[in-house]
Amino acid sequence: MPQPDARPDVAARLVARGLVPGDATWRALPGGRTNRIWRVRGGGIDLVCKCYAGDGASPLFPNDPQAEALALKSLAGTGLAPRLHALDEEGGACLLYNFLPGDGAATPPEEVARLLRRLHDMPPPNGLRQLASGADAILETGDRALKDCPPDTAARLISLRPAPVDVSEGPSVFLHGDPVPANVVGGADGPALIDWQCPALGDPCEDLAIFLSPAMQVLYGGTPLDPAQSETVLAAYGDAKTTKRYRALALHFHWRMAAHCLWKAARGDADYARAAELEIAALRMCGKKVR
Length: 291
Fold this sequence. Notes:
By secondary structure, the protein is an alpha+beta fold. It has helices at 8-16, 65-74, 109-120, 135-147, 151-158, 205-212, 214-219, 227-237, 240-265, 270-290, and strands spanning 25-28, 36-42, 45-51, 84-88, 94-98, 173-175, 184-187, 190-193, 200-202.
């Protein structure tokens, strides 16, 4: 039977609909800052059950169960993502997909870069959200986040807002949207990506910026990459035009991520307040390089 924190109402509902066996064991999994997740085993299944928080979206990261199901369906058999078992949305969205063993935190950063390149080369499914590209679009997302932050907190970051730059538009590719270390699972068949609630079409720099973000590294199980490691990631990704575009937009990406962290901190997550300082430090360092 489910553990006390496994929401027996959800378990009973999924059992009644024949999606999991009644004698399966439920174990809460670590992680899941936004949504709650469990490993469900027994009766020939070994699944992850993700139950979505109704208020889990932010200006930067959506939290869309239908988009996650769409992404998993489209990637079936590629080794890039787990296999979708079911999406049940009656009474609150719950997604079931096969459990992938392995420790993503042990995956070398350059392997993550190659994993992202494989994804970006995949044909995307119809129905994904489209991200606007370029410096103005990046900054606008940060602006929206700061509007919902305390004025004194927002003012400090507004004073650091970089000027837009004119950068040639990149290709529109299949994005994971949240490739933080905790969302990379390294197994016997190579690394794969989990937690697909933010997929999109857009500039490949978007995924690279999130993985290279010092805040996202620290918040989700890693450590900030040093400059040499960051260069290794960009080299391993293997596309000179994308690398050039990322470097031109790095200031803007760090600024937007700092705004996201302040938005989260304003909602009570002290870890994000500390993470914002890492992004601000990276922002200042990029600014020195630009000068």
